Amino acid sequence: MDKSDILGSILPVLPDEKIDSAGVEYKYYPSEIIRAYENGWLLEIQEPTVIREAAVLMALNSALEPDDSINLPTRIVHRHPDFIAVITTNRGYNGCFKFGGIFIAYK
Fold it and tell me: In this structure, are residues 82 and 40 in contact, taking their beta carbons and an 8 Å threshold?
């Protein structure tokens, strides 16, 4: 998992009407996490204990804060009041590590 899995990606696309054009446009594609956050869906995140990149954990933690918003490249997304995140993990497996305070229990 990397930051684009949490925040989404900006990817190059060819303009629809100018297929032969050399120009390239860029479009933001939101991640499933952002879509759930914005639309009030239930989101399950499995095995976050195998994430090794600290920036990913920091982005995930800030995305899960209550009554907050996420700054995206194209806009600011506000947390939907019905959004619920469930994080599941199997502690003690090889390759897993302790969170050490990165995740906070929200009620």
Answer: yes
Q: Which helix (H) or strand (E) holds 16?
A: none
Q: 0.85 exceeded by the pTM?
A: no
Q: How many residues does the chain have?
A: 107
**If you compute the radius of gyration of the chain from its CA atoms, what whole number of angstroms results?**
17
What would you measure as the largest C-alpha separation in the chain, in angstroms?
Answer: 54
d(CA 102, CA 24): 39
54 Rama class: left (phi>0) / alpha (psi -120 to 50) / beta: alpha
11, 26 Cβ separation under 8 angstroms: yes
User: Mean pLDDT for each 10-residue chunk of the chain (107 residues)?
Assistant: 84 73 82 93 86 79 76 88 86 66 51
Bridge partners (DSSP) of residue 63 are none
